[in-house]
Design a protein that fits this description.
Elements (H helix, E strand, L loop, with lengths): L2 E3 L1 H8 L3 H4 L2 E10 L2 H8 L1 H7 L3 E8 L1 H13 L7 E4 L3 H8 L19 H6 L1 E2 L2 E2 L2 E6 L1 E6 H6 L10 H11 L20 H11 L16 H17 L9 H9 L5 E5 L3 H4 L11 E5 L13 E6 L7 H11 L2 H11 L10 H5 L1 H6 L4 H9 L24 H16 L5 H18 L9
Parallel strand pairs: 2-3, 2-4
Antiparallel strand pairs: 1-2, 4-11, 5-6, 7-11, 8-9, 8-10
Helix pairs in contact: 10-11, 19-20
């Protein structure tokens, strides 16, 4: 955030004039999440600084929930702590509408904006302009241990159902050997446990709101989804699951403690890399499970980089973002860290690259198809007034999703029943929506 000028100090020490010794560096501070791809980005920062020696990059890397809270507060209060922020498909259009982030107009021809996947580009745009550039993008699918399936005489279908997933989890659950039949996110948060849980509700035919914006969290579909989630996790899931978000569950799978994991397609590179995964050679992939409808059974998300309006160094910030989301950066990761570790889901050229095709042949096309076939405008079988699969694209959703996520986690921990969790969630969401003016207070 601060412009450091060393000229005066150098001049004083060397007895030189300020003009002859002027060496200035612009410092930019980046806020990001502690996911593996972002950790790689931080490690490769010297490559950026080598290309732009007048820019110095500082990092604030933190867990997902902390990032969301800290960045939202900072940017909404115009504190100006960051020059580059990591945000997602939910925040981008809302923050753009509020005037909190700067648009990416007139991107250089070499950036090749048309190479960005259309669904991802659309998710990060507002009024026809991109307001964030995608670092990586994802849908969700089923990951499983082929060796365990083979040993048990089981076969994962390409399009599994939740009935089949339950059967497999029961058969493969082996606590004595440290193997959980299934691993799912349990940590509370609208982008943590609710990212998965929302897809479960969707595929059972549930929705957050009806066409009049009235919440439906006590509907039959929500009850069915809740009982399915709790049954899977209580009977075949890991202990202490309320502490497990994406990163923790990814590590459980990579260390051989999960037979099945339903989560982000972006995890595929990590769990198939022998340097990070003990089960790298035994991982299989299938579509996300379906119950009653395939709509909303797999999500659409992008972790992207944006420039706060209040930054003092927009040009330096933009240079970093263009670098970190470019074709050249993807090639750099492939060459330095292995092609299975490149940021997925953002560019058509990645999926045409022979080196990536070879490294990611087990999951590349499934990832691309899952992203392209996601249905944010039709997330379930009933009509809805909102867009979004694992979120509702309204400003109130961060609070709503956090509240409901906490209740779902409380039910998972055994601190309240499924019915109590849903009723408490329904009451809270109804109150928030009434206060926000979505429907009249005299409506039931």
């Amino acid at each position: 955030m601060r412009l450091l000028t060393y000229a005066a100090g150098i001049a004083g020490i060397a007895g030189l004039s300020i003009g002859s010794a002027a060496v200035a560096k612009t410092q930019i501070t980046i806020a990001t999440v502690n996911n593996p791809q972002m950790v790689v980005m931080k490690k490769l920062t010297p490559e950026f600084e080598k290309k732009y020696p007048n820019i110095q990059v500082n990092w604030d890397v933190m867990p997902e929930n902390k990032l969301r809270r800290k960045v939202t507060v900072d940017i909404s209060t115009h504190s100006g702590s960051y020059d580059v922020v990591t945000l997602g498909a939910l925040n981008t259009p809302i923050w753009a509408k509020n005037g909190w982030i700067l648009p990416f107009k007139n991107l250089p021809k070499s950036y090749d904006k048309s190479d960005l996947l259309k669904p991802v580009r659309k998710a990060l745009s507002y009024s026809g302009n991109l307001y964030a550039l995608p670092f990586y993008a994802e849908s969700s699918f089923t990951m499983y241990r082929k060796d365990l399936f083979k040993k048990a005489g089981l076969k994962m279908p390409q399009h599994p159902t939740y009935k089949q997933i339950t059967k497999f989890a029961k058969k493969l659950n082996d606590p004595k050997k440290g193997i959980n039949g299934i691993c799912l996110r349990g940590k509370a948060g609208w982008g943590l446990n609710m990212a998965y849980f929302d897809t479960l509700v969707n595929t059972y035919g549930g929705r957050w709101f009806n066409k009049q914006w009235q919440p439906e969290l006590t509907s039959k579909a929500w009850h069915t989804a809740m009982h399915k989630y709790l049954s899977l996790m209580h009977n075949y899931g890991p202990n202490g699951a309320t502490s497990n978000g994406f990163v923790e569950t990814e590590n459980l799978f990579a260390n051989g403690h999960c037979a099945i994991w339903i989560d982000a397609t972006s995890a595929a590179g990590y769990i198939t890399d022998p340097s990070t995964s003990k089960v790298a050679g035994n991982v299989g992939f299938a579509w996300a499970p379906v119950a009653k409808t395939k709509n909303g059974s797999h999500w659409l998300w992008s972790w992207a980089l944006a420039i706060p309006k209040d930054t003092q160094h927009p040009q330096a910030a933009r240079k970093f973002i263009e670098w970190a989301t470019s074709k050249a950066y993807i090639n750099l990761v492939g060459e330095k860290k292995g092609w299975e570790n490149v940021p997925p889901g953002t560019r058509y050229s990645t999926y045409k690259n022979p080196q990536y095709q070879k490294a990611a042949k087990k999951y590349a096309q499934l990832t691309l198809k899952s992203i392209n076939q996601a249905t944010p405008n039709h997330p379930t079988n009933k009509p809805v007034p909102y867009t979004g699969i694992q979120f509702v694209a309204i400003p109130q959703f961060e609070g709503i999703g956090r509240e409901v996520g906490q209740n779902v986690a409380a039910a998972l921990a055994g601190n309240m029943s499924a019915d109590q969790a849903l009723q408490k969630s329904q009451t809270a969401v109804k109150k928030i929506m009434k206060q926000a003016g979505y429907y009249s207070k005299n409506k039931k």
